[in-house]
């Protein structure tokens, strides 16, 4: 039974799928402190959060069983991704479910700041009928600068056109062609600062976007600009903004987010009559909360059940077309890694992954992670290494990972070869996906074989002489070890040969010791896949 902890208020309807799952037990405990979380997280396999819970390295460290942290929303700045990656904890988010909702909140804020709605409301309910103080401006024919043309920024631009606004968009990934298709102008930050009447930011908070609008930008800003931030506190320098308002550069601002949330009681935004605020409500609609909770719950279930999943934040996304090609190779890659790690003695120095045939033209990065996981898990334990942290762990341990590709695969349409270089040896194994047979090991060092990479294998290197196979079989039989399949690979008749047996149970060490006493027998090695 998997245990899932929900530590923020998350839509009940959204997590229904988890609650209904027969193999999952859900505990809802919103509002726990870090210490309280540290005390209980050890018993959970998954943690579901919104933006309140700060998932710190301490919590990850205490989460010995934790496989996944699911964020019901977009921004994952409340989750320590570095610590999660190091511990192999998958972090997933729900990037699509609250896009429209946040876009609509941006418009609510833009219109509210253009027409002084909150200020006018306060006076009216306070009994003052003041129609003079709240002269507003139209959106029509105004220039709107959109910083960050991702999901939300693009939806904002689309709707702003309906208001008759001219849109300047800036995003490092926005091309001239896409801007043209959207009917907006591709602009620089400087263009927006100097020309926009309204500006709205929709970027993540990164070292690059922190204070991207600060004193320097306010100094050259078009006077009378109105600014909206429904993305992340800190993209706009709060103190510099207050100064710019006091200097008459900025006519008004609408903020849903703060550098520190909740803001301090004496935060200057809270008393400035030209700044309107909401308490991080961008995603707070019934629809969005259901959407993000449903999305994240589904992915958490997949991860707990070891099924393919999407939206991992601490793993590069795999495009659908690449995934469909690579997915069948994932088990093969991992088994080859595990096989070669068990076969090769000594401290691992280098893993060389060679792809030949059909795989030469594919971005194999996701598959590399499986191979490296297979190798490292043998040394570090399967619970310590997964496809999220395998590359990171290899780097941390100075294990070089080299990837080669060639379009020629001799007798196969596709071939994956893993070579392991250690302080003591260099061994290699090749595998292929065979139509109708699935994954097969087709070569071990220079011996051609044909073995399914599963179960208990016994590898025996020997001289190719009559009677050896029978002697090994007799010794196994005498010890109640049943042979399921047997293969012999040899280069030359009478030369060195490799016997690969699949056996129904693991061969005890005492039997191996006995087998290696046979004449002409060099080595015997048990491998479990
Ligand atoms: N207020 C709220 O409740 C909510 C806030 N958000 C926040 O809104 C922001 C945008 O979310 P999405 O559109 O879903 O994300 P997204 O990832 O689809 O878009 C972000 C865009 O920002 C761009 N970007 C990155 N660095 C940039 C830079 N230096 N200058 C200009 N553009 C840059 C990226 O290329 C990307 O296109 C995020 O910070 C997210 O956390 C999202 C949902 C709700
Ligand atoms: O969960 C929330 O309300 C915050 C949403 C948000 O900021 C995000 O998804 O990035």
Question: What report would you give on this structure?
Answer:
The protein is of the alpha/beta class and 529 residues long. It folds into four domains: 2-95 and 287-304, NAD(P)-binding Rossmann-like Domain (Rossmann fold); 99-277, 3-Layer(aba) Sandwich (Rossmann fold), CATH 3.40.50.720; 320-453, 2-Layer Sandwich (60s Ribosomal Protein L30, Chain: A); 455-529, ACT domain (Alpha-Beta Plaits, 2-Layer Sandwich), CATH 3.30.70. 33% of the residues lie in helices and 25% in strands. The protein contains 18 helices and 22 strands. The strands form four sheets. A seven-stranded parallel sheet has the order 8-7-6-9-10-11-12, with helices on both faces. Helix 14 runs parallel beside helix 15 (365-380) and helix 15 (365-380) crosses helix 16. The longest helix is centred in the middle third of the chain and has 19 residues, at 286-304. It starts with a strand and ends with a strand. The model has no long low-confidence stretch (mean pLDDT 93). Bound molecules: 1,4-dihydronicotinamide adenine dinucleotide and 2-oxoglutaric acid. 1,4-dihydronicotinamide adenine dinucleotide is lined by residues 73-75, 95, 98-99, 102, 147-153, 170-173, 202-204, 206, 208-209, 230-232, 256-257, 280, 282-283.
């Amino acid at each position: 039974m998997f245990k899932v902890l929900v530590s923020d208020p998350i839509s009940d309807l959204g997590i229904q799928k988890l609650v209904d799952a027969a193999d999952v037990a859900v505990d809802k405990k919103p509002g726990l402190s870090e210490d309280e979380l540290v005390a209980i997280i050890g018993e959970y396999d998954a943690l579901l959060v919104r933006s309140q819970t700060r998932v710190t390295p301490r919590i990850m460290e205490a989460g010995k069983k934790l496989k996944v942290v699911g964020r019901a929303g977009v921004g994952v700045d409340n989750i320590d991704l570095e610590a999660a990656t190091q511990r192999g904890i998958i972090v997933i988010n729900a990037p699509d479910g609250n896009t429209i909702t946040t876009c609509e909140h941006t418009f609510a804020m833009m219109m509210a700041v253009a027409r002084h709605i909150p200020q006018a409301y306060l006076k009216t309910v306070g009994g003052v009928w003041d129609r003079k103080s709240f002269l507003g401006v139209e959106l029509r024919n105004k220039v709107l600068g959109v910083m960050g043309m991702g999901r939300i920024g693009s939806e904002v631009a689309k709707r702003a056109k309906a208001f008759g606004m001219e849109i300047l968009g800036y995003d490092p990934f926005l091309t001239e062609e896409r801007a043209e298709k959207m009917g907006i102008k591709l602009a620089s930050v400087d263009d927006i600062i100097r020309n926009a009447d309204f500006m709205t930011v929709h970027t993540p908070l990164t070292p690059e976007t922190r204070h991207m609008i600060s004193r320097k930008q306010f100094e050259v800003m078009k006077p009378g600009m109105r600014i909206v931030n429904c993305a992340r506190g800190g993209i706009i320098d709060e103190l510099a903004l207050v100064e710019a308002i006091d200097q008459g550069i900025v006519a008004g601002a609408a903020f849903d987010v703060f550098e520190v949330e909740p803001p301090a009681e004496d935060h200057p935004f809270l008393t400035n009559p030209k700044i309107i605020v909401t308490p991080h409500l961008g995603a707070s609609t019934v629809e969005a909360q259901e959407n993000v909770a449903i999305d994240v719950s589904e992915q958490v279930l997949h991860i707990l059940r070891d099924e393919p999943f999407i939206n991992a934040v601490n793993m590069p996304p795999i495009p659908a077309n690449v995934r469909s090609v690579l997915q069948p190779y994932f088990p093969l890659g991992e088994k080859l890694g595990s096989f070669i790690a068990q076969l090769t003695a000594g401290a691992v120095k280098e893993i060389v992954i060679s792809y030949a045939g059909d795989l030469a033209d594919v971005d194999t990065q996701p598959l590399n992670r499986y191979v490296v996981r297979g190798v490292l898990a043998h040394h570090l334990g399967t619970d310590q290494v997964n496809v999220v942290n395998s590359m990171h762990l290899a780097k941390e341990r100075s294990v070089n990972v080299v990837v080669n590709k060639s379009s020629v695969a001799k007798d196969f349409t596709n071939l994956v070869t893993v070579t392991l270089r250690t302080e003591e040896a260099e061994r290699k194994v090749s595998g292929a996906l065979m139509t109708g047979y699935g994954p097969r090991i087709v070569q071990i060092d220079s011996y051609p074989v044909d073995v399914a990479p599963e179960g208990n294998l016994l590898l025996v290197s020997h001289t190719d002489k009559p009677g050896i196979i029978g002697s090994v079989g007799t010794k196994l039989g005498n010890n109640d070890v049943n042979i399921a399949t047997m293969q012999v690979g040899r280069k030359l008749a009478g030369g060195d040969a490799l016997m690969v047996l699949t056996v129904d149970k693991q061969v005890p060490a005492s039997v191996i010791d006995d087998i290696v006493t046979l004449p002409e027998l060099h080595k015997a090695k048990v491998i479990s896949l």
